[in-house]
User: Fold this.
Amino acid sequence: MSVLDGWAEGTHTDPATGVAHPTYRRGSGPGVVVVAEIPGITPDVVTFADEVVASGFTVVLPHLFGDVPSAAGPGAAVRTLTKVCVNREFNTMRLHETSPVATWLRSLARTLHAELGGPGVGALGMCFTGGFALAMMVDESVVAPVLAQPSLPFPVGRARAGDLNLSPEDLVVVKRRAAAGCAVLGVKYADDPAVGTRFETLTREIGDAFIRVELPGRQHSTLTGQRQQVAVDRVLEFFRDALL
Assistant:
């Protein structure tokens, strides 16, 4: 029995670029795109996604890397990292650049919103993909972006530790949308070194539109491996407020 039993496998192709990735979908109601962390769609990621489904949403899990389902643990993480770090869809080190995969993710969100209607789509990224939800916010279809411990670019040095994995042009759009009322939720452990100073950057750039949830401690995966129910509940509340 697979942890993805009950999830419908599909594919989304961006009509503008021809880029395609597999997807897994479940639920009903407004759309939420949940982008898995390294090493991929693990049982913990599916458990969280099932909670989003149970709260009244249609959840789509893009398969961008790793096995499906992916094993958890450091071995699987290392195997996946060796592949994604040379994949041109992901910007792991460069400053002030949006990861190219954001274009495909925005297309996925637009398509989901066009199908399901409602005020828009939620987007959530974790760790390696945490900042992708912010990049997706550039598209008007995304009205509830959640950044769970965003970790790109890798925080090597002070500049990268505070970088948002966004181009200057995309940052302008994010700031405009935030000023117009689109809130951004961020969740992390207070002393997680992988996040660097990105929460401070977000507070400086978009002010009160950035909602910070900081858990005590130095752990990492707020919604999966070291999950805290208070963080999960806050994310679900954010989606309900924006989408239902």
User: Anything to note?
Assistant: The mean pLDDT is 96. Residues 130 and 150 are 4 Å apart (CA to CA). The chain has one domain: 14-243. The beta strands are 8-13, 20-27, 31-35, 58-62, 121-126, 142-148, 184-189, 210-215.
